[in-house]
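To whoever is on call:

I kicked off a structure prediction for a single chain this morning and the downstream step that reads the tokens threw a length-mismatch warning. I double-checked the sequence; it's 274 residues and nothing unusual in it as far as I can see. Pasting both halves so you can look.
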Amino acid sequence: MKSTTELRKIARSKHAAVTKIADGCSMTVVTESAATIHHDDMITSALTRSFNYDAHYDLLAVPSLRELLKSNDHIQILANDVMTAVSLHHVESLLIASMSTGCAAQIRRRITQACPAIRNMHIRETTLERPRNLELHEPLVLTCMDWRLHGANGFRSMMQGAFAVERFALMSTAGAGKELGHTGARANMVLSQLSRFANAGLERVIVLSHTDCGKYGGNAAFADDHAQCVGLTSDLGNAAKLLREKFPKIRFETGIIRCHGHDVTGVEPTTHHH
């Protein structure tokens, strides 16, 4: 990990004005998985209110931020992911948005304790309007935090054609498909969070990896496109196997989001796991 001095240079002053940038992302959003957050413009509205910003954002979303607070290991993973956004995408600002009153402030305190360099970011907290019902008949999509995948220009509009899905809850963490393909701290965090939805009757999960993923080293880590797809598909298969063993009543499907430069160009289902 970079030194605090280097991270300060990347994050810049916490009081600096936030502006749109054409070739990347200057914002990270930490929030929860409920479908209404990701389909009813809650994030865009919160970013506009908090930062006067409506462009790209890295997304870190879990079913329950309050549940995350119960584990120091899980808080450390969240803090590490925020700093990944800083180092890879030159993120300067952080919005923490929760449906639970007071939770965003607790998350801020804990992640800055876990990684003091986060204090150098421009951080805002907000409480989102809580939906009356969390619609558990809607599937949960588990994918990466990469800013290209999220928001109006991300993969969301392509899910109907790929998986016959219009609305879905969303969980995102760094390198989701890759990390879940191997046991470890992040896999344990994801399994712990999924238990919250599984116990409430969740029936379907779609795990999506994407090309040019920083967790793999980007496109350059593979000899060609075919080799990249083989590698992603293998890890997705391992992830689905792990998840199916843990949650035998849930239907798991997998797919690959195609990224070309700064754009998402498609979503391709891979092996379906029942």
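Update from on-call: the warning came from a stale cache, not from the record. Cleared it. Sanity check on the structure: The CA atoms of residues 234 and 246 lie 19 Å apart.
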